[in-house]
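Severity: low
Component: inverse-folding endpoint
Summary: output formatting inconsistent between runs
Steps to reproduce: submit the following structure tokens with default settings.
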């Protein structure tokens, strides 16, 4: 299992190699940089994406019927499996559409790592901190919900993903 620092380093290296300096991060461009093709297909609703690693090519399959923010997370997640050199040739990732407290807690270490990598790629901490500073500069009465929503729009992620990221970075404390 990769440590948190290894995940952060792998994500930072990919972002630096791709000269990412602003949000939203072009995850399709990152995949292309790694030589990974992306195919969009209308999979069954609970299937968010797949990563197929073959000897001569690697392909990410993305559910074209999912919202754009979900598709972006799926690509970043599958890039995580690839960049972190997870064992296996086929990764199938399903979405739990109706989450309860237990279903949102991934148990598989590789899935946890791929989710962490996706968060680091889509919402790099340095870009988040810069955006928070700009959004809050000289403003009073700016609600946490507005901050989360504005950042989610800027980074093209769901408000749920942004809230989770801000919480992990110690910027936001849920009520």
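Observed output (run 2 of 3):
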């Amino acid at each position: 299992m990769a440590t948190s620092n290894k995940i952060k380093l792998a994500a930072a290296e990919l972002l630096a190699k791709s000269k990412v300096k602003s949000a939203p991060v072009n995850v399709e461009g990152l995949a292309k940089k790694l030589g990974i093709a992306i195919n969009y297909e209308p999979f069954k609703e609970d299937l968010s994406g797949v990563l197929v690693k073959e000897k001569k090519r690697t392909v990410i399959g993305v559910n074209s019927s999912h919202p754009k923010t979900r598709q972006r997370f799926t690509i970043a997640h599958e890039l995580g499996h690839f960049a972190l050199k997870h064992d296996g040739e086929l990764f199938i990732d399903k979405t739990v559409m109706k989450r309860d407290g237990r279903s949102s807690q991934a148990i598989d270490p590789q899935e946890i790592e791929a989710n962490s990598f996706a968060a680091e790629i889509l919402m790099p901490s340095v870009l988040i901190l810069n955006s928070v500073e700009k959004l809050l500069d000289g403003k009073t009465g700016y609600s946490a919900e507005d901050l989360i929503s504005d950042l989610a729009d800027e980074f093209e992620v769901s408000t749920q993903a942004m809230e989770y990221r801000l919480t992990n970075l110690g910027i936001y404390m849920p009520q």
